[in-house]
Write a structure and sequence with these properties.
Radius of gyration of chain A: 20 Å
Number of helices of chain B: 13
Distance between the termini of chain A: 48 Å
Strand order of the largest sheet of chain B: 1-2
Radius of gyration of chain B: 24 Å
Distance between the termini of chain B: 59 Å
Shape of chain A: globular
Number of helices of chain A: 13
Oligomer: heterodimer
Helix content of chain B: 55-70%
Order of helices and strands of chain B: HHHHEEHHHHEEEHEHHHEEH
Structural class of chain A: mainly alpha
Strand content of chain A: under 5%
Order of helices and strands of chain A: HHHHHHHHHHHEEHH
Number of domains of chain B: 1
CATH class of chain A: Mainly Alpha
Largest sheet of chain B: 2 strands, antiparallel
Amino acid sequence: MFADATLATIFVGLMGLSVLIYAVLDGYDLGVGILLPLENENQKDQMIASIGPFWDANETWLVLAVGLLLIAFPTAHSIILKALYLPASIMLIGLILRGVAFDFRAKVKQTRKATWDKVFKAGSLITSCCQGFMLGMYVMGFEHSLAAYLFSFLSAIGVTMGYAMIGSAWLILKTSGELQLRAIGWARWCGRLAFVGIIGVCIVNPLINDFVLERWTQMPTAFFISAIPALCFILLVLNDRVLNTLPLPQDKGCWLPFMLTVIIFICCFAGLALSFFPWVVPGQLTIWQAASAPDSLRFILWGALIVIPCILAYTIFSYRIFWGKVEDLRYY
Amino acid sequence: MADVFMLSRIQFAANISFHILFPSISIGLVWLLCYFKVRYDLSGHPVWMRAYRFWVKVFALTFAMGVVSGITMSFQFGTNWPGFMEKVGNVAGPLLGYEVLTAFFMEATFLGIMLFAFNKVPSWLHTLATCIVAVGTSLSAFWILSLNSWMQTPAGVEVIDGVVHAKDWMAIIFNPSFPYRLVHMLIASGITASFLVAGLSAYRIYRGDDKKAPRLTLKAGVFMAAILAPLQAFVGDMHGLNTLEHQPQKIAAIEGVWHTEKGAPLVLFGFPDEDTKTTHFALEVPNMASLILTHDPEGELRGLNEFEGEHPPVKPLFFGFRIMVGVGMLMIAVAWFCAWQLWRRDDLSRLGLKALIGMTFSGWVATLAGWYVTEVGRQPYLVSGILRTADAVTDIPPANVGFTLSLYLITYAVLLTAYLRTLFLMARRSVEIEEIQLHERSKQRNFIPRDVNQGV
């Protein structure tokens, strides 16, 4: 039913989808972790309560994305992860620390809770910085030069800002009162910094990768591709205006910043994806060169086509159960 | 290269050893939680909810440790063992993929409902969520053990241009050693969880907790262990016979059979010496190994001499196996002793409590020892007869692996300490602070009708 060449495209599409869902979902809970105010006990508890039921499933999208890379493009998986060995390992330590700190903080003595909060915040920060750094190295084609490292550091800051931005948008949606006001302030700051970051990537990316430059300047592709950053900037300005008017009476529009931020994430992701498709390792390996045996891909694809809609359905179900402003998080 | 090879092996072993500690608890524990929750739904007695509430916290913590340590594994395949996916990725990939798709998401999503939605959804839906998490964890074990078993006893594939291609998926998934290994591991997890539950409950009672919940959980843990531990001995024996059929070199190393012989003795203990190919200070039961493995006292056992250069190192298997069996015997003894006491007088002596507290984490020892036997027993192959471990290793600088290995080891040591301390802290705390009603102090089971305000 599926031609061999189509299979590779389908799988890179599935992988892209899970990376995007991961960036949005784990993005907001990492962002909440990054923003955690260590001095305010009440706000800390509220913020962590807002992500409590979700973080575990959110992280699973990363496992799926890496899993799909491993399943569909094993050669690319080893090239990419070998090149990113250290940042990937440090990111894993960050993820480990943050995942367990979340549980420990609620169960240990009051005096140790503050320590685990710090671990939670640090773990979130380490994770997002490493992910940004890895994205930068990926865009730079795993080059080991000063320029590449500088760009990757910028990318680390950019991704962290992006996560903080979607994290604060999540908080605007899920909280009220003083914490919501604080979140609005955070969102404005992060939005402005993200603006600068995205401009940076738009300039650097075509300059270092020839095939990207070609795509960005040749008609008619240039027309579509340049629409993406343009849309992104318009949305960022719009988001800033919206944040300026929040909070409104009866908390109208508290969902707007989150929605706008998700669209901005989609734009950034689409920009990157269109720049690099069909390369899976930029400049080295295309998806067709890296793909696994078609029979194996078909075997997993059928399962994926059945299971992924179910996953989406019960994910939505879970979000509906925890709909609305956050309440006290209590284990039962 | 040898350095990267050894470092990568140690790192993988460290990661997977740390990881398996937590699933081996959570797979079994979540079924116990289902039991507590169903009992609560049926009787309406708040004590079951209280049992659930204490153990669901332990489960949440254990599950989180398992998830985060498991993510590391999916990266390690690419970073340290690129040859593995390049050569057998066509088989390993889909099996891992199905684990993520059918198990991970289900567990993680419904865990959120199980932990935090008790007041937001009807009780039956909460029970259902608990059961779904239980099914998810067992399903996850299904897929990963299928892959592991396939690496031990590959089937259903053909090798084209040095790369493994799948021919028959049913043969791959249900490869010869899979049913035995799956059942063996699921029971192991059940035993690990039941000794943890019994041990921590005994600890609470030992510290003067006179509430009803720890007594109920103590009983549940002890009786579960008393049933599962002997069952495990039986299943383990069948697993051993299956191994003899498909991986005779592993059995030869376990039993210390250096040369093919008829009427081989069972070596209870000794010190195997690979240089002289003898077992020093061997304490033997004549003809017993042949009797157990071939059901004939004069049966022939193939010795290590038939697998020159193709057999695993003897010492780790020899000792690992004896540790596993020894702990297993001890488990049967303790579980039966305590079950007998509980049966007779509905109470445990101080000795029984102490024994259970001492055995709290005995499941970890046996499970790890067993896994070391089976995994080291596959060496020098990564996939039996298809891929040698040494051919799959990465070429990244040894210093990098050394760095990350030490980072992991430090993190794991800290987390393991924190985990153990937290469990005992939670137990001590619940002795004092958990609210109780007067009638629960009595040891009799005076169930009362459901009252919506109680115990929730």
